[in-house]
């Protein structure tokens, strides 16, 4: 089975890189957040408000589980995917889990106060969440790609080179 799974904090570029990488590899591209939004016919922030974070997290796990059984897909995950142990176990069954790493300051400049992201309103909470998740991304990753100062094309080429 060969899926490529992109993990990393909000703003790391998982969706943008994923889309380009899927073209390069001729794989199908699936963005778990968009998949949930399309199925629910609601934006992530409305889902958090109306159905709650727990419902969102349950959907995330269900979709991750079904996708990991497939093949030839580039999968962009949401930044919180590593929080549940169940998800981390699923990620461990995949051999191409790429952590798109960036500094928290860079991430905040990209997505801080972004209205479409319910968990990026406040810098100190954003930092804490980042610090808590950092070791989880590192542990789940089979490859770590430092994205700071690199273009999308550079990152896609780098991933292409390590796969
Ligand atoms: C979340 C990240 C978001 C989205 C949701 C929760 C998180 O995805 O899944 O808002 O917990 O970090 P991105 O990483 O694509 O922003």
Contiguous helical run count: 8
Mean pLDDT, to the nearest integer, reads: 96
Low-confidence stretches: none
Please write the string of helix (H) and strand (E) elements.
EHEHHHEHEHHEH
- Strand content is 5-15%
Strand order of the largest sheet: 2-3-1-4-5
Helix content: 40-55%
Number of strands: 5
* Alpha-beta content class: alpha/beta
- Largest sheet, strands/sense/barrel: 5 strands, parallel
Q: Name the overall outline.
A: globular
Small molecules bound in the structure, each named once: shikimate-3-phosphate
**End-to-end distance, in Å?**
13 Å
Alpha-carbon Rg, integer: 15 Å
Structure description:
By secondary structure, this protein is of the alpha/beta class. The chain is built from eight helices and five strands. It has helices at 14-25, 32-40, 44-50, 53-68, 85-92, 104-111, 123-140, 152-162, and strands at residues 3-7, 28-31, 73-76, 97-101, 143-146. Helix 1 (14-25) packs across helix 8 and helix 4 (53-68) packs parallel to helix 5 (85-92). It is globular. The chain binds shikimate-3-phosphate. Shikimate-3-phosphate (S3P) is lined by residues 10, 14, 33, 44, 78-80, 117-119.
């Amino acid at each position: 089975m060969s899926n490529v799974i992109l993990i990393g904090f909000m703003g790391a570029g998982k969706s943008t890189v994923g889309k380009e990488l899927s073209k390069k590899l001729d794989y199908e591209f699936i963005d778990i957040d968009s998949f949930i939004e399309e199925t629910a016919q609601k934006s992530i922030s409305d889902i958090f408000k109306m159905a709650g974070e727990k419902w969102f997290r349950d959907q995330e796990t269900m979709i991750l589980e079904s996708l990991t059984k497939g093949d030839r897909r580039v999968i962009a995950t949401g930044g919180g995917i590593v929080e549940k142990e169940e998800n981390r176990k699923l990620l461990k069954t995949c051999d191409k889990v790429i952590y798109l790493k960036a500094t928290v300051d860079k991430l905040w400049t990209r997505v801080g106060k972004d209205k479409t992201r319910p968990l990026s309103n406040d810098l100190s909470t954003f930092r804490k969440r980042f610090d808590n998740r950092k070791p989880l991304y590192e542990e789940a990753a089979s490859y770590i790609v430092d994205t700071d100062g690199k273009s999308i094309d550079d990152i896609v080429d780098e991933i292409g080179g390590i796969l």
